[in-house]
Amino acid sequence: MVKKFFLSFLLFCMILSLSACGSSGNDSSTAQQQQAKLKVVVSFNAMKEFAQAIGKDKVDIQTIIPDGTEPHDFEPTANDLEGLSTAKIFIYNGFGMENSWLDKALQAVNNKNLIIVEASKGATPIANTDPEVIKDDGQYDPHLWVSLKGAEIEAKNIKDAFVTADPANKDYYEKNYTDFYNQLEQLYTEYDNKFKSVTNKSFVTGHAAFGYLSRDFELKQNSVEDVFADGEPSAKKLKELTDYCKENQIKTIFVEDMVSPKVSEALANEVGAKAEKIYTIESKEDNKDYIQSMRNNLEEIYTSLK
Fold first, then answer.
1. Same domain for 112 and 250?
2. Kindly report the CA angle at 252 between 249 and 258, in degrees rounded to 5?
3. Quick check: is 110 in a domain?
4. 148 and 229 housed in the same domain
5. H or E segment at 190?
6. pTM, full prediction
7. Same-domain status, 184 and 197
């Protein structure tokens, strides 16, 4: 009788143990599902900066255009686009930035559930005026992200896509977006006051990537290269720039790593100005995030105008 009771008790314990293991397995599976990150593919670094600010640890981001590569001239390979086939969201800037490859890439991707985000949607573009630039590169200046007001629009479009793709974490994305928006607004207010305090509004850059920033603060940009960084300037263009710098008492020529830095430095020497680095945020540089890069840009421009 005792033996029979012991065997029954042992069997009962085994059933409890197996049940607990099964429950633990289900809990583990549920935890893994809850921790699964939203797979996001972006065209280049600035889009990654915005996606990371909003998605943080709930997103896994792949960038098509690698850091250190000039985005205006980039043509992705099949390997570069492979991540789009399994991604939940694809984010691109728009305004012509990815025109050379975007349509072909999306047509080639077999992913019917892919949420496609044109980050610049709803913003007012700056139109290009040079017929050759329009013919070769498109009718708009694409550099909306180099603008605090532009960043607010692009970040909201990205946030809305995250909420659509992952509604269970809506509050998380909304809070992160609000925090990021507030940082952008604080930075804008700070430098709006600073730029209003100076009478000189003209600055010179390596390429014309700062049109939207200039629009934010009513500044005037001139540049060594055009909006799309299409090659080094002609002798005539350099002469015009030299005269412009002297007439406007330009004290700083802003240099970008990927766009003719030697030409910008030579121009600085010619007009007795100093060369200072500035960020287009097309690539990750000096380990700075978006807010840090833009603060650096605004402070450098402001200092040059005083």
1. no
2. 140
3. yes
4. no
5. helix 170-196
6. 0.85
7. no
